[in-house]
## 1
Amino acid sequence: MAFVREILDQHCLNQFLKLALKSFNEGNYQQTIESLEMIRQHDQSVGHKCSDVVTFYLIEARVAMAKLYWKQGNAIAAIEEYQGAIKLAPKYADLHLSLGRIYAGRHEYLPAENSFKKALEINPNYIEAILSQAYLAAEQGRHEKAVELFIGLSAKTNFYKQELFDKALAEANKGNLARAVKDFNLAFKTSPDRAETLCALGQDALRDNSCQEAVKYFLQAKKLKPGYADIYNLLGVCYTHTGEWSKASRLLKQAVKLAPHFTRAWLNLCIVSEKLDRKSQAQAACKKAAKLEPKNILVAETLERLSEKTPPHKPGRSEK
C-alpha cells in the first residue's frame, strides 16, 4: 500500500508541476508560486530534496511577482518576494542588487548598503552593484565616498560618457566634491545599461530553449561587460545545452576567476568537468562550492557522489 501511495503522490506532484509551468507561461505568477510551494513543502515533509526545476521556476516566479509589486508601488510586497527568492538562492547576486535598489528607493540606506555589499561579496566585479553604491553614497551626501567609488568604477568598465567623466574628475581634483558627484552621476547615467537588457533577453531565450539566440545575446553583452562573471556563467550553461562541453568549461573557468565566490558557477564547472571526464577538476570545483555554501544540498550530494566514484589510491612498489 505504501508503494501505491507513493505512486499516487508522485502523480499528483507531476500534475501540480504541469499546472505551475502552465501558469508561469501565462504570466500567472501567484498561481505558479502556490503550486510550486505545495510541491516543495511536500518534499520537505517526506525528507526528499526539492527538484532543481521546481526551485528554478519558484525563484523566477517570485522575482516576476516582486517586479510587478514594485511597478504597482507596493514596495513591502516586492521586498517580501525578493527575500523569499534569496532564501532559495542566497548566492545569486542579482537578487541582492534588486532588493538593495528597492531599499534605496525607500531611503532605507542601511539595508540598501548591506544588500549591495552582499551582491559584491558574491561577484566582486558586479558593475551595477558598485554603481548603486556610488549613487547611494551621493544621495546621502557622502561625496568623498561617492567620488572614490566612481573613480574606482572607471577602471572596471568603459560604459560611461568620457567628456562628463573628465569634467567630474577635474572638479574632484579641485576639491569641489559635490559638483564632481553631480557630473559623475551624469557621466554614468547618460549611458543606459544595454548589457543588462541583453542579459535579460538571453535568459528569456534560454528559458524558451532557444540556445543559439541566447548565445547571441550573451556574446553581445560580454563585449560591453567583459568583466561580468554572470555572463560567462550563462554562456557556459548555454553551451552545456548544445553539448559543447569544452567551450562551457573555458567560460565557467573565466566566471569563477572573475567571481571566486560564485557558488553556482563552481557547481556548473564541476558538472562540466565531470562530463569531460576530468574527475579531479570536478571534485576540486565541487569542494570549492561546498566551502562557499556548506548547506547547499545539491552541492553536498554531488560531492558525495563524486567521492564514491573516485577509486581508492593503490600504493606503488616504492610506497610499500
## 2
Amino acid sequence: MKNLIFILLLITSCAKIPTQSVDLSNALKQEANRMHQMNIALVDYVFNEKKHMVNEFIANEYAPAFVQNFIKLLPPDTDVKREMPEIIAAINPKIDDRRDSLLSVLQVQKNAIVKQLNTDYQAFDQAFVALQNMLASAAKLNATRTSIYDDVKNLSGNKINLSAINTLLDNFITGAGSVGEKATILSSSIQLLLNP
C-alpha cells in the first residue's frame, strides 16, 4: 500500500493549476486578438493619412511647381493662357506618375508592416494555443489528482490523506531551512498522517 501511495504521489505531484487559468487564458487570447486588430487598424489609419498627405502635396506643391517649371521651358512667344489645356494634358501624366510612385511606395511599406504584424501574431497565437492546451491538460490533471486522492482516502478508510501529504511534500521542496531539518519534519509529519 505504501508503494502505491508513493507511485500515486509521483504521478500527481505536478504543479497545481486552477481550472480558472483556462478561462483566464481564453480571455487573454481574445484581448490579444483585439489588440492585433487595433494594431492593423492603426497602421491603416496612419497610411491613409500619409496617402492624404501625398495627394495634398501633389495638388498644393508639386503640381504647381511642376507647371511653373514646365512653363519656363516653353518658347517665349507661347500664349500660356490659350495653351493651358494642352499644357495640363501634357504634364498631368507626369504628375500622376509621381503621385502613383509615392502611393505605391507607401502601399509596399504598409503591406510589409501588416505582414510582419500578422506573422508575429501567428507566432504568438501558436504559442498561446500550446499554452492553453497545457493549461487545459494541467487542469484535467488537477481534477484527476483530486479524484485519486479521494479514492485513496476512501480505500484506506479515510486514514491516508494524500492531499495533506502532497502539501507536506511541496513545503519540503520549496520551504526554507536545511534539507536535514526539513527531511526530519517531513518524515515525522507523514508518519503522523499515516498512523493517526
## 3
Amino acid sequence: MMLLAQSDRPFATEVWLTPLILLPGVALLIVSTSARFGQLHADFHQIIEHPNAHAKIISRNLLRRSELFRDALASLYVSVGLFSMGSLVGAFVDFFWPTSVWFVGAFTIAGIGCVVFAAAQLFRESLICLAVIKEHSDAVSNNSKHDV
C-alpha cells in the first residue's frame, strides 16, 4: 500500500507543475500583444497630428483593434492568474490531500480557455488590420491617380 502511494506522488507533482510550464508561452503572447497595442497609440497620434480624408475610417478601425487587444490582454492576464492559482492550489492540495489533484485540472482548463479566447481576439484583430492596410492601399492609389 505504501508503494502505491509513493508511485502516485510524481504524477501528482507533475499535475500541479503543468500550469507553470504553460506560463512562458502566455508571457510571450502578452509581450507581443502589448507591443502591438502600444503601436496603436502611436498610430492614433499620427492621425491626430496629420489628419487626412480617411482619418475617420482609420480611427474607427484602430478603436476596434484596440478593443480586441484589450480583451485579448485581459484574457491572457486572467489565464496567468488561473495557471498560477492552479499550481499554488495544486501544491497545497498535493501536500495535504495527494489524491485530490483535480483542483489543478479545473484551473488549468479555465486558463487554457482564456488563452483560446485571447487567440480568437487576436485573430479577429488581424482581420481588421488587413482591412486597414487595404484602406491605406486604396487611399494611396486614389491619391496617385489625382497627382497624375
## 4
Amino acid sequence: MKKVAVMIVDTKTGVSQFGVIEEPVQEGFEIENALRHFGVDRGHVIFESENNDKISTGYVEETTKVVSVVVV
C-alpha cells in the first residue's frame, strides 16, 4: 500500500487542499484514487513534470488549479 500526498491550489482564488491518502487500491491506480478524494479526475490533469513515478506536477485543464502529487 502506497501513501499519496496531494496538494491542489486554485491560483485564482488561493484556495488550497492538501491530504495524504493511504488505502488499498489496485497497483498503478494510487494517484487516480487519491485525486478522486479531492474531486479531480486524473483524465483532466495535464502533468507537465513527472519524476520516476514519485513526484508529479501539473494543472487541471480548463481550470486555474495546480496539482502536485508525491507517492511514497
